[in-house]
Specification:
three-stranded antiparallel β-sheet, Rossmann fold, six-stranded mixed β-sheet, 9 strands, 3 helices, binds inosinic acid, 186 residues, binds magnesium ion, alpha/beta
Length: 186
Amino acid sequence: MTQTELERAVGEILIEEEAIQARIGELGVEISADYTGRDLLLVGVLKGAVFFMADLMRELTVPCEIDFMAISSYGAATDSSGVVRILKDLDINVSGRDVLVVEDIIDSGLTLSYLMRNLRARKPASLEVVTLLTKPERREIDVPVRYVGFEIPNRFVIGYGLDFAERYRNLPYVAVLHSDLIPPPH
Ligand code: IMP
Ligand code: MG
């Protein structure tokens, strides 16, 4: 079988496509049960969360809306400083809403911590987080995360929304970046 250019970036596959989809199904059931009788506002953090959010939303049986924020960290490009700038803010007013932040991955937790403080100040009725992936070993700040898809080891991963220099988001699985490609200093 010949490898595509895309596949050459892939080291070990950590989470197969089927496993991701099955876990999203379970999260959909759990979240739908928890929010019965309410309607949800899903807040996605661009760009990585788009893929997870699209699949998760289709597993929800409660009424829901989506909106997006784009943020960028100041300082070092590859390591999160926790100082964050909002590049695109929400269109929907979150005051009084049941807000569920949708993340692709939580690494140091600094970005999410800033985002949670920012959103909490807007007085939502409730504010929770769902993340597809988490790297517990890398956590620098404690952020309460209500729903977690998978815990992964401290390795740089690509696929299913996660990028390396903006590439490889379109892989349907989560894989470790191939060692031939220089990983970011992290
Ligand atoms: P944190 O502020 O350190 O938690 O940064 C989280 C952000 O860093 C994520 O939203 C991703 O954009 C990026 N990130 C962290 N780990 C990885 C990885 O293994 N692959 C791709 N992006 C990652
Ligand atoms: Mg990124």
